[in-house]
Specification:
OB fold (Dihydrolipoamide Acetyltransferase, E2P), Ribosomal Protein S8, Chain: A, domain 1, single chain, alpha+beta
Length: 227
Amino acid sequence: MGILVNDKDVVVPGEILAEGMDFVPSGDVFRDGEKLVSGRWGLVSVSGRILKLIPLSGKYVPKRNDLVIGTIENVGISGWRIDIGCAFSASLLLRDATQEFIERGADLSKFYDVGDYVMCQIVKTSGPKIIDVSMKGPGLRKLGPGKLLKVAPAKVPRIIGKQGSMISMIKEMTDCKISVGQNGIIWLVGEDPKKELTAVDAINLIERESHISGLTDKVKELLEKRK
């Protein structure tokens, strides 16, 4: 009886993680009688009595309050349509678009035009076809020129790290500005092209080896070697 895995172990669907009632399932961990079972391929996270998984695969599923990076794909009369990497695009309405006053009949492309990349927040989901986003909030903005990376959405928590520790380390050691969307799109820009490349390599390393223990040390070693 008790826990059968360690923090950051890689587990597969159906694997028994713990037995007994001492631990509580969360997220993709479910209870089967007195057993806690993994619901997908992922990385075990043990926080006190709570067992949950950090997924290592899977498509992005929009959730309320998620921060995502998308591209404007259509400018309409009453708002914009944004591609956020899902089967259906998201809607940005006038009331959620900006703090500025927009006159009726204004040319909305002056605010966000087709092809612009934006950092926005999901404020409503109602089934797979209705996704509303907002541009009102800290850090929500139109993104300027920079590099765009696409990673598996399931790897985003590892790229961000606990309380933002991993991405903060990359920012500090490369002097790059980096925005991470929970839909797996990352925007970054730096004044030094070599440091930009180092940041890209660090992110690629995390995505490639997200299931391996000691990842933080590996990333730090790469960043220090390139300094």
